[in-house]
Design goal:
Elements: E1 4-6, E2 13-22, E3 28-35, E4 50-54, E5 61-65
């Protein structure tokens, strides 16, 4: 089951996805993003050291590193 967050503004569910991306210098980074439907890159849990916040204007969930 994919990890989901519900928007407080719209009430819509968004599913967390992760994708491994290689940068121009050869460094590999993991990109995390939310989508309206669970796809093949959907992940089951929130990554350690991250928390969810919400964009006040659009209501879209965001993933931020904990401080």
């Amino acid at each position: 089951m994919a990890f989901s967050a519900v928007s407080k503004k719209s009430g819509k569910s968004y599913f967390l996805h992760a994708r491994l991306q290689e940068l121009r210098g050869g460094q590999k980074v993991t990109l995390y993003y939310f989508a309206g439907a669970a796809g093949k890159d959907a992940i089951d849990s929130l990554p350690e050291g991250y928390e969810i916040s919400e964009n006040a204007r659009t209501g879209l969930p965001l993933l931020k590193k904990k401080r």
